[in-house]
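User: Quick sanity check before I run a bigger batch. Here is a single chain. Can you write out its predicted 3D structure?
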Amino acid sequence: MGAFIFDMDGTMIDSMPSHKHSWVEFARRKQLQVDIDDLMRRTTGRTGIECMRDLFDHPEMDEATAMAHVHEKEAVYREIFSPIFAEVAGFKAFFNLAYGRGLKLGVGTAGDRHNQAFAYQHLQMPIAPLTTVGGDEGLPGKPEPAIFLEAARRMGVEPARCIVFEDAPLGIEAARRAGMRAVGIASSHHPDELRGPHVLAIVPDYNALIASRFLETHHVASS
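Assistant: Done. Predicted structure follows.
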């Protein structure tokens, strides 16, 4: 294997409860009656514009209006998550181990550049990802494979030599469509929702991958 591609929310950072809370608050402000659990199931991994068109049941909502809603909702999310910010357990340690074994490391997220900057500022990673592909770059969201394929292209690695790390079913499916293998991080979904023939492992966090010697077992790179 030549590269790892990490989703961000729920995979690098333990942000999904705060995202859920922010959707509740945003819907309240807009006086929308929403089944939040159903909304999360349908939209986790999709871009902000896609989410807003779904939420308002307005497929033709213009991009400027949708983005204004996205910025409002994500500002609420960052306000909620900032004081309780946390990585998914063991992420930075695993990231550093993978880097030390010569892997190219990228991020493929539906999150926009503001949420990316927020995450990196709080994570304080000593090694930056080689590339970050975001949900505000005009690419379709997951389960379409475009975000992951673009991350692989920018890193110069064939899709078949990439492993995607994902916490959501739509992301796991996007990896399959991209021709990539995957690891399910069961931080926000039941492990059964993350299964697939291309899924190498399903774990609660990165400490479990370190303990199981995932890097060594799968011969993903050499030091």
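Residues 191 and 202 are 6 Å apart (CA to CA).

User: Great, the batch can go ahead then.
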